[in-house]
Design brief:
Elements (H helix, E strand, L loop, with lengths): L1 H25 L5 H23 L5 E7 L6 E6 L5 E6 L5 E6 L5 E5 L2 E5 L8 E5 L5 E7 L2 E6 L4 E6 L5 E6 L7 E5 L12 E5 L4 E5 L6 E7 L8 E2 L4 E6 L4 E6 L5 E5 L7 E8 L7 E2 L7 E2 L4 E5 L2 E2 L6 E5 L2 E6 L10 E2 L8 E12 L2 E9 L4 E2 L11 H5 L2 E7 L10 E5 L5 E9 L6 E9 L4 E5 L9 E6 L5 E3 L14 E6 L5 E3 L4 E4 L5 E10 L5 E11 L18 E2 L11 E7 L3 E8 L5 E11 L2 E7 L12 E9 L2 E9 L2
Parallel strand pairs: 22-42
Antiparallel strand pairs: 1-2, 1-20, 2-3, 4-5, 5-6, 6-7, 8-9, 9-10, 10-11, 12-13, 13-14, 14-15, 16-17, 17-18, 18-19, 21-24, 23-40, 25-41, 26-38, 27-32, 28-29, 29-30, 30-31, 31-36, 32-33, 33-34, 34-35, 35-38, 36-37, 39-40, 41-42, 43-44, 44-47, 45-46, 45-48, 48-49
Length: 652
Amino acid sequence: MIESACSSFSSHRESLAHTNIATDIATLSVTPITAAIAATLVTLTIVLALLMMALPTRADYLYGVNWNTDDTYIFTLDTDTGEMAKYYGHPVDDISALDFDSSGQLYALTTHALYRIDLYNPSNNEMIAYGADWVFESFEIIDDVGYTNHVFDGGLIALDLETGEDTLVGQVGGGANRLTGLASNDLFPPRRGGPLYAGRVFRDDIVTVDPVTAEITGTVAVIRETLVNLAYGSDHSLWFIDSSDSTLYRVDIATGIVSTFMKKLDLSNVTGLAAVPDAPALWPEIITTSLPPGEVGIPYGPVAIEVQGGEPPLQWILVPFAYEEIDLGASLYYWRGQAQGWFADNGAWEYWLPFHFPFYGETYRQVWITSNGYIDLAGPFSDPNNSDTALIAAKRICPLWDDLSTSYGGRDIYIDESADNEVTVFWNVYRPQNQIPCYFQCSLRANGEIEFHYGPRSEAVTPTVGISNGDSIHYELSMYNGQTDLEDVNSVRFTPQEMPDGLTFSADAVISGTPIEAGFFDLELRVIDSLLRDDEAILTLEILPGPSGLNPDDTPPNPTSVSLLPAKPNPFNPTVQIAFELPQPAPIELTIVDLRGEVVRRLLNGAQQQAGRRTITWDGCADDGRTLPSGTYLVRLRTGREVQVGKVMLVR
């Protein structure tokens, strides 16, 4: 079978070449000059053909989908190095096939639907076709028309990639002729528009299929493996995976020779395969190592962050160095949302956000909502034992973390998705210790903002309230942290702070603007290329005081609310300036707290302070005079029921 396929292919190629050359010669007048020209054309044609055969093959970059019930993700496989890279967990499961169109747009086929998959921004995934009667297994795009086959009756179906309209091309045949993989040469130049290459699951071979008539027109190779998918390689080869032993195979279309490429990669759950030509560019690398200092009131830059490598387009993310907590002035709590039927003590339930939520430089679609009053971004972890230390060590958003339950008295968790780019989670829970109900909400927005809202009966609690990235560095404890009565208190909003006030960071990584605040700012930068490979860097930006030696806010107007201002400098050694503002005279408690929650220094112990701005210097020592070690410390400002918390880093 292999020999006949090779002979047929070679004869066809030679016949085609001879026919074209003969036709060209026949159109010329037979003169010595034209004969010489003809001879030259023949020679050039032969030389060009030999050169094309001698060109080195290019490494393919394969895209695949690993699908199982626990973890569905798209991966890449470099056929030159054997390196595999996981892209991301994907909300579209049950994917059976992948393919790129001529513009490089990736499509994913499930058993009943077709999706456009945006590798650069997975939140843009779009289902473009649906058929309740379809059961699909393979997919291939030719001239921007998608072809798939019906598993049961062997029908070859053409899909319009814009409208999702389907057309039955013809019957390839079910049973022994059932197709299990489709591929073509549509993506790589020169675009030939076919034929379709297809694997047959019960005949253990690869055949050619006419995309116009659905007829099987020839055999490429006998493979005798359990083929589950096909991808067309840049050197006119076919890639497929044997699902029985996780081996990657390559088929030379010209000869029909099947060769083992790699063994024992983790390919056992691969259900889709597609290829792009050439290994991509090197991983992106941020090569800027320092930033020039700026000055308050003086235009800065523009300063461009330089990067080398990476497959364009590049996406830049600026990791927030802090979140600013804002008192919204009233309780914005109100009952809304759909009941989820989540009843448990210490329960955690998976939930897919309708958008990608940015949080400390990462984006999240998959989260876990717990009965204990928090959203976990790392996994289904529901812990009733709340503490500041536990929050700082976890990726969590905690409007009211306590020992709470939905297992009694009709309690439940509700979710509202009615607002654009916003999700609100509503807890209707109770404390098992005293059966007192608690009503509170958390809103997440696509721009990274977080809001906490508190309703009636949120009292007699011992809450941990705040947000954390789980690295013991990036976290914010709320003004409500540790308060035992949160009934109808004002709502608060956490807003990410990414740049010093007055400066901006553009989409193409340029810093510009006019700073209005002096200090040291650690800018955490992340660049992601179109293959979702990334690099990170932390660059320190120093903003000096203006020409007068004063910041613009050193002579503020009369403050209208209690405000704990950012400490300066931060990080610091040996001293730091801690400032706050009061709209009217009030007793103030200002303390320094370590990460274990212990007060290590009392700077103000409830003494009456005048209205306006006050600045206190902390020397990095404890109340007993001990020099405290390097680390992160909390600055806690308390006046009456209001508590504000900041963060400083001591670097010895």
